[in-house]
């Protein structure tokens, strides 16, 4: 989707660093009743669940955990795809609850001849299905399957529309059919919650596919998909790595900076993405009991990688980096310091050897081969040469 240029007048978006309002971020390491958290145990037992609930109630909506059954059907399989380098599987994952079901269609390539279960990247695909063409007649840098296979990674994707159509009138026609109560609750999940929920069902599938190393699965999303990837990674600790590409407002960027897209703007444009309760913070970010640095902190101690693009000011590159910087407090608790500097790194200078990775790619809002190459470097570092 093209970068948004901005409004004028009363709804003008700010792109001027000098006009970022003064703000105070909610403290990650202090409980609602004022207790300071200074060890991993109290983080995991008290504050982490508290922050998850705050995000559920105020931003993304609840994440229902119960379903009656799951069924996996391999609908197409090519053992010698990509000139023999990969094994293609197309899998329909069906989740049932009461008499309702939802189908998530997975496209998966696994590298052949690596002699062990493969680490995997899973993309939450918010673009056209042609980007994940199983026949490889169409190749797209949005999901560079050949690159992943060359590097020894499996690569998978599902369409967001399977989980929740990206449309304010029809978003209910997927996962939400299983959970109709969500539609009536102020803290009910909507499309972004449903996309993250579906990523969890793919993880369920991976856990029983012997070709996949389920302990080494990375979740990836771009933009709206990047918001869902962060929420999936925060909720489902089976994801070993999280990649959030150009996710911007209500993704990696700090809401309180009000730089580029704002909470009001996103709720007005996409009323089907977040819980209804989130609208209470339109024009009133200071009242939010969370900010997005806390979402990144929920992923700790698992490595997380955030990207920006230099021309994508709508998604607030600086605010995305600052989220990581502030989220570092929890990584420090786990003794996984990242050594992030107070100022963002220069354009095209990826931070790889860190639990909190980042790059600001030169160019526009997009998910490109440059981004993926650095995702694979980050995964190589954490999966193979963990210190
Ligand atoms: C924009 C939206 C962003 C981002 C983007 C995308 O219109 O304002 O929050 O999600 O779409 O998904 O490409």
Describe this structure in words.
By secondary structure, the chain is α/β, with parallel strands linked by helices. The protein is built from 10 helices and 9 strands. The protein has helices spanning 40-60, 81-84, 145-150, 160-163, 191-207, 224-235, 263-269, 292-297, 317-333, 369-384, and strands at 69-80, 86-97, 100-111, 118-125, 154-159, 212-222, 241-245, 304-309, 356-361. Helix 5 (191-207) packs across helix 6 (224-235). The chain is globular and about 55 Å long. The protein starts with 39 loop residues before the first helix and ends with a helix. Residues 1-10 have low confidence and may be disordered. The protein binds beta-D-galactopyranuronic acid. Beta-D-galactopyranuronic acid is lined by residues 1, 4, 126, 223-224, 248-249, 261, 266, 269.
């Amino acid at each position: 989707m093209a970068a948004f240029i901005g409004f004028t007048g009363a709804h003008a978006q700010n792109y001027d660093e000098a006009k970022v309002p003064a703000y105070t971020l909610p403290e990650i390491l202090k409980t609602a009743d004022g207790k300071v958290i200074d060890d991993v145990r109290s983080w995991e037992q008290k504050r982490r669940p508290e922050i998850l609930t705050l995000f559920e109630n105020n931003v993304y909506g609840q994440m229902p955990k119960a379903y009656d059954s799951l069924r996996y059907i391999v609908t197409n399989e090519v053992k010698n795809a990509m000139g023999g380098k990969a094994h293609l599987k197309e899998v329909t994952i069906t989740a049932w609850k009461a008499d309702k079901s939802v189908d998530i269609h997975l496209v998966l390539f696994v590298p052949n001849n690596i002699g062990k279960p493969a680490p995997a990247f899973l993309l939450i695909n918010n673009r056209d299905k042609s980007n994940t063409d199983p026949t490889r007649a169409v190749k797209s840098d949005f999901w560079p399957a050949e690159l992943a296979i060359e590097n020894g990674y499996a690569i998978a994707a599902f369409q967001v529309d399977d989980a929740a159509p990206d449309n304010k009138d029809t978003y209910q026609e997927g996962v939400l059919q299983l959970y109709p109560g969500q539609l009536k609750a102020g803290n009910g999940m909507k499309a972004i919650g449903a996309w993250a929920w579906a990523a969890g069902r793919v993880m369920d599938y991976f856990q029983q596919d012997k070709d996949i190393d389920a302990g080494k699965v990375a979740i990836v999303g771009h933009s709206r998909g990047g918001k869902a990837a962060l929420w999936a990674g925060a909720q489902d600790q089976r994801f070993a790595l999280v990649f959030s590409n150009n996710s911007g407002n209500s993704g990696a960027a700090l809401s309180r900076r009000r730089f580029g897209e704002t909470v009001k703007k996103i709720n007005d444009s996409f009323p089907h993405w977040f819980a209804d309760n989130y609208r209470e913070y339109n024009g009133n970010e200071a009242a939010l009991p969370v900010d997005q640095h806390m979402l990144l902190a929920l992923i700790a101690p698992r490595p997380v990688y955030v990207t920006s693009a230099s021309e994508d000011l709508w998604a607030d590159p600086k605010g995305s980096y600052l989220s990581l910087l502030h989220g570092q407090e929890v990584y420090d608790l786990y003794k996984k310091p990242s050594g992030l500097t107070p100022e963002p790194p220069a354009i095209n200078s990826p931070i790889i050897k860190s639990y909190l990775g980042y790059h600001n790619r030169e160019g526009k809002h997009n998910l490109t081969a440059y981004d993926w190459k650095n995702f694979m470097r980050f995964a190589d570092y954490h999966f193979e040469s963990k210190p």
